[in-house]
Amino acid sequence: MNAPARQGGESLGTLRAWGAAVLAPSDTARLDAELLLADAAGVPRAAVIAFPERTVDAAAAARFRAAVARRAAGEPLAYLVGRKEFYGLPLDVAPAVLVPRPETELVVEQALARLPPEAPCTVLDLGTGSGAIALAIASERPLAAVTAVDSSAAALEVARRNGERLGLVVRWIESDWFAALGDERFDVIVCNPPYVREDDPGLAGALAFEPRAALAAGADGLAAFAAVLDGAARHLAPGGELLLEHGHDQQEALAALARERGLAAVARYRDYAGHPRALALTAAPRVGAAVQPRLPRR
What we know:
By secondary structure, the protein is α/β, with parallel strands linked by helices. The chain has 2 domains: about 10-75, Helicase, Ruva Protein, domain 3 (Orthogonal Bundle); about 95-285, Rossmann fold (3-Layer(aba) Sandwich). It contains 10 helices and 11 strands. The chain has helices spanning about 10-25, 30-40, 45-50, 60-70, 75-80, 105-115, 130-140, 155-165, 225-235, 250-260; strands at about 10, 55, 85, 90, 120-125, 145-150, 170-175, 185-190, 235-245, 265-270, 275-285. The strands form 3 sheets. Strands 7-6-5-8-9-11-10 form a 7-stranded mixed sheet, sandwiched between helices. Helix 6 packs parallel to helix 7 (about 130-140).
């Protein structure tokens, strides 16, 4: 579709209609157009809707047209506007990190169910990316000492920036999983690792713009889980739990991998669409040992 006329200023309504038409038949075409236009014009989305007669200058219109073209090519909206809300927190995002997904909020909820609001506790977020999980937990449990690690320095820079802007205290560490943590132990370890199969067509489609290293994990999608499970028991405090997000068809295989490494499944969770999505694990006690959980369980 041709771009709207550029002489004499262009109205928000005309630009919005053009953008929505270009992005059709996407179910979110109109919403995406409104958010991209608001970002390009430097106004709230509400203004785009309420004042369609307002005009924008040529520079803003050009930014909008360029953003619509990139969105039509499949680039995530969050990268185009530079932010994404997660668990009520506005997070900066960039191509160095995955776009936070709503299903990952399930892992946050289950972590919070295990962390008492009135007592100090320790939390580790493995592969933190934008810092979404760590910051959500820190915002809800101010007494928790939250540590977040990632092997990507670029991702950690995004996470640190989010923490500073939100005024939330998290210890950020560059590390390949547990490598830089010595003998530290944590009451709750949370991890949303790469779990997409290397041959998944999505890696060349909808996921193509996101960092492949944060998505793909071997032929069966389980390689990162194995690495995390190998070190988990050594870094869980007595009675502590590991919460893992996983693919919708990986729960049984993941539970089997955990058993092989001395970890027992204590709970399984489905996401809001009804798909298996998360597993809670704890270090299986030695025969005859009685390990009481330090933290409440749902």
